[in-house]
Every structure is written in C-alpha cells, then in structure tokens.
Amino acid sequence: xxxxxxxxxxxxxxxxxxxxxxxxxxxxxxxxxxxxxxxxxxxxxxxxxxxxxxxxxxxxxxxxxxxxxxxxxxxxxxxxxxxxxxxxxxxxxxxxxxxxxxxxxxxxxxxxxxxxxxxxxxxxxxxxxxxxxxxxxxxxxxxxxxxxxxxxxxxxxxxxxxxxxxxxxxxxxxxxxxxxxxxxxxxxxxxxxxxxxxxxxxxxxxxxxxxxxxxxxxxxxxxxxxxxxxxxxxxxxxxxxxxxxxxxxxxxxxxxxxxxxx
Length: 262
Description:
Blueprint: H1 2-6, H2 8-11, H3 14-27, E1 38-40, H4 46-54, E2 63-64, E3 79-83, H5 94-107, H6 110-119, H7 121-128, E4 137-146, E5 152-155, E6 161-168, E7 181-183, H8 188-192, E8 194-196, E9 204-208, E10 216-218, E11 228-237, H9 241-254
Antiparallel strand pairs: 1-9, 2-3, 3-4, 4-11, 5-10, 6-9, 6-11, 7-8, 7-10
C-alpha cells in the first residue's frame, strides 16, 4: 500500500511515536472537573492514524473479555481484547505488523509513562505519598473492539490501577456521541452530573485512578453506532516486587495463549 510505503520511516521509529504521544500529554490542559483528567487531541501523525485504522488486526486475533456489563444473554461478550505487546504481534500480516509493532513499543515507552506521571503528579503523590519518579508502574496496552450492545456501568476502576488511558480509533467523526462519560459520583444527583469525552479520531483521555473520585461509564451502544474501537493503556501499580513479578509472568503467559479472565 502506498500510504504504508510513504510513511515507513515513521513506523521504523517507535521512539518518534512515543515522543509525539508524550508531547501531546504534556500540552493537554489538566482538567479538574469532575476529577483530574486530560482530553488529548491529534495523538498520532495523520499517516500513522490512517494506517492504524486501515490496518486494524482482524478480530480473530482477539479474545473475549468477560465482565458482567459486557455479556449478552447467551453468555458471549460484546468486548474483544487483544494485547498490544510487540512480541505478540509478530504473526500479524506484514502490512499490519509494520504499523502496530512500533505503536505497541511506543505505548510501553518510559517517556510516555513519565509524561502521564508528571501530568498527574499531584493526585499520584497524594495517593502514594512519594514523588512520582519513585512510583513504580507497569503498562498494559490492549486493543479493544466493542460490538453494538456494549455498555459498562458507573465505576471508579480497581485500586491495582494507577492511571487509565484510552485512545480512540474511530474511522471518522460519526461516532462522536459514544465516548466515555465522567460522573461527579456513583449515585443520585452526582451520577447525573456528567462530562462526556467525544469519541473522535486520534483523540483520547487519561486520568489518575481514585476509588472515591474517578467515576466513569459507557452508555450502551446500538447497531447504528457500529463497532467502538480503541486502545486502552492501563498503568498498574507495581510497588511491591511480588506484584511486579506477577505482572511480568502474566505477560509471559500470553505468549502461550493463556489469557486472564477479567
């Protein structure tokens, strides 16, 4: 494909992609309502973004992510998950591999993690009681494909997560209305006070996880909404050596097709 040939140099340099992502994080204004977060725009260079969308790995490379809100009556899931670790993408077709391996490497880059840490330094230091450069995290990037009917209720994310990031990958602006919804609280009037992240091309959001503040949800999608495709990048807490070892073993197990249930 001509587009891939023209932009091959970009895909050969995951550090270029990581540096661009980090700079977008850095320049995105910190919003504090209803909780600390950023909404990011122009995340990827235009040619890289077009390639991500056109070279999307086939659904056959994904597996079902099972959680209560995503289940259909027959027990199948409306959410498919594909881990975006570089070593797991080698069997993709050549054109897709040229695009997705450098992006996968960029998602795990230390400079991108540092950009998010610095952006959310106040909340993270308040939670962990130490400077952000001493907080040990572990990135887990995944490609999500949400079929019509997907939804998830109001939740704040589990304490094992430190930073939640989602990069939106729609083909155009027609899915704007299906972005993640932030809430003032979980119940009552607070749950009704919302702010929605527009599901637009090459955009995304990020926030530091707080069990008492970071309430968010996704409204149920319909057939007319189509498939909701995104990259979820979660930075897990890896403060304890045993926890870090567990995360590394989990990554190694993926090579043998052993996937966590949740």
